[in-house]
Amino acid sequence: MSPPKLVADSHLPQGTPSGPRWLVILLFLGAPLLFASNMVGARWLSGSVPPVTLAFGRWTVAALLLLPLVWPHLRQGALWRAPAGALALLALLGGVASVAPQYGAARYTSAGNIALIAAMSPLLVAIIERVVWGVRLRPAMLAGIGCAFCGIAVAAFRGDMAALLRLELNSGDALMFGAILAWAGYTALLRHHPVPLPPMLLIWVVATGGALGMVPLVALEWASMGVPALGAQAFWGMLFLGIVAGIGAYGAFARVVGMLGAARASMSMYLVPAYALALGAAILGESLHPYHAVAMALVLGGVALGTLRLPLHR
């Protein structure tokens, strides 16, 4: 008898990947860790690489590294069998609109605002699925979203809930909200309109489309700020982001979406701030406080609530 496998919703299209429970858990916990490394890498490069240039470099590295792996599929004309419109939209949402604004938002807004806005991702995915595709929202998922959102709020405002009343919005908040809205759209689209491409080829399309889509934005950035002098730190930083945050994170998350569905997979994104706190303390020497423990407990509890009762088959 084969080991039990997790499957997504009943409307899962034929060919969507599934896997054993241990693999689902590993990818569910691993994908946000890879995304959190993006934040740590961006902090390490803060001030040395402009935001759009950093996003462009990240995707260029990913596209070049993936090219030898996907070249046989390209030679066989695999891209011609996929809908061009869906590919373009995935590249726009997942490669351009959800990446560069995140790097730029930190220049104008606080880390607390960014964390709180980023925590809206699962809620936005659920809303998009409900409005566009009529997906029913389970009470457990709504409870989990609310619990995890409270945890992010505790961390974002350092345990001072009265700070919520003093929340000020600026252009950075608008950039971050736009990025998270684009990511939610990418997640939902990936689930409900899967393209018939091998996973690595799809990531290459997103990476290549993201890099090409940012060319005019890079030109504008360089025209306004000057051409940056990029040294060894920028090179190694872009290489790290391209491999880990580009190829690794997007590949793992796409697999989780295929296994669990967009709404439940997006719950894993609540783990990103928790991982970022731990990595920041371990690698960058950032301090931890008691309210971080409270926030992490709420986040983990919310993730558990939102992902309970996953259907099984043998």
Question: What report would you give on this structure?
Answer:
InterPro entries: AA-Vitamin_Transporters, EamA_dom, EmrE-like. This is DMT family transporter. The chain crosses the membrane at residues 21-40, 52-71, 78-100, 106-128, 140-157, 169-189, 201-222, 234-253, 265-285, 291-312. Belongs to the EamA transporter family. It comes from Teichococcus coralli. With 314 residues, this protein is mainly α. The protein has one domain (16-313). Helix content is 70%, strand content 2%. The chain contains 14 helices and three strands. The chain has helices spanning 21-44, 51-75, 84-97, 100-105, 111-118, 121-133, 139-156, 171-192, 199-213, 215-225, 232-260, 262-266, 271-283, 290-306, and strands at residues 5-6, 19-20, 312-313. It has a three-stranded antiparallel β-sheet with strand order 2-1-3. Helix 1 (21-44) runs antiparallel to helix 11 (232-260), helix 2 crosses helix 11 and helix 3 (84-97) runs antiparallel to helix 8 (171-192). The longest helix is centred in the C-terminal third of the chain and has 29 residues, at 232-260. It starts with a strand and ends with a strand. Residues 1-17 and 310-314 have low confidence and may be disordered.
